[in-house]
Design goal:
By secondary structure, the chain is α+β, with helices and mostly antiparallel strands. The chain is 23% helix and 33% strand. The chain has six helices and ten strands. Strands 1, 2, 3, 4, 5, 6, 7, 8, 9 and 10 form a ten-stranded mixed sheet that branches. Strand 2 (47-48) and strand 3 form a beta hairpin. Helix 3 crosses helix 4 and helix 3 packs parallel to helix 5. The longest helix is centred in the N-terminal third of the chain and has 13 residues, at 73-85.
Length: 264
């Protein structure tokens, strides 16, 4: 009886071209597929939920693969062990479980959460974006509230992402946490971080990074709340400080934090 194996992955993105396979480049997909072959799982159609472009990290990414048979707990433990043994140091598999054949990592997902880290110290400079001097966190919070709801995020999307159909997405919440310390996967305890977490039904290419870029510019006074509101009301006429790719936050500070499902 065919079913799916569902893995939960964690990785640092700085040495990857993203999840998707890329010609002559190192991708998370290819590294994971090679590790699966160590467990005897080949041509499995691995599919991952959540957008992780070049340099983006993952704390919890869900991947589904085809399985030709039901597996017991011991078999699942053996798969987890064999896959883990073949992974490099910047990728971990956290869990392996069985799901119905109808399960699909992307289409079965109910919501996703991305977290972006701004740093106020050099502790995690490699996996966060250094906060600019004088950043007004209060202004960042007020700007974040403008983004919540069902909005047309065309202005916050990479040009290529506009070809996939509607640019309307539902952003359920934006949390702003000023953290004295935080635990980052692979990195450990880090001091002085501002965490900006986006929870929504789905995200466009570069959307989170461009939202963070706009919030940081708003927090420094380089952008106004009215300009953010205008970009949401009329995306085609958005101010370049919102829509231009050069103002997007760097990929290194973005983490895919969670993907939620209604497990069958």
């Amino acid at each position: 009886m065919r079913s799916k194996l569902v893995f939960e992955l964690q990785y640092l993105g700085d040495a990857f071209a993203g999840w998707q396979p890329q010609p002559n480049e190192r991708s998370v997909h290819d590294v994971f597929a090679a590790a699966l072959s160590n467990a005897g799982i080949i041509d499995c159609g691995a599919v991952a939920a959540g957008r992780t472009d070049r340099g983006v990290n993952a704390a919890h990414q869900v991947v589904s693969v085809r399985s030709d048979a039901d597996r017991g707990d011991e078999d699942l433990s053996a798969v987890l062990r064999d896959v883990s043994a073949a992974l490099p140091g910047d990728v971990r598999v956290l869990s392996c479980r069985q799901a119905p054949a109808s399960f699909h990592a992307i289409t079965s997902a109910r919501s996703k959460r991305y977290a972006y880290y701004l740093g106020f110290s050099e502790d995690a400079a490699r996996y966060s974006w250094q906060a600019p001097p004088g950043l007004d966190v209060g202004r960042v919070r007020r700007g974040a509230a403008l983004l919540v709801g069902e909005r047309d995020f065309r202005a916050f999307c990479a040009p290529g992402g506009r070809k996939c159909g509607s640019t309307v997405r539902s952003l359920r919440s934006v949390e702003i946490d000023d953290l004295e310390t935080a635990e980052l996967p692979f990195v450990g305890r880090v001091r002085g971080l501002l965490r900006i977490a986006f929870d929504g039904d789905g995200f466009l290419k570069h959307q989170c990074r461009k939202m963070v870029g706009a919030l940081v510019r708003l927090g420094t006074g380089a952008l106004s709340e009215a300009q953010v509101e205008a970009a949401l009301a009329d995306p085609r006429g958005a101010h370049p400080a919102v829509s231009s790719r050069r103002f997007a936050a760097p990929a290194r500070g973005l983490w895919l934090e969670r993907v939620d499902y209604a497990w069958e």
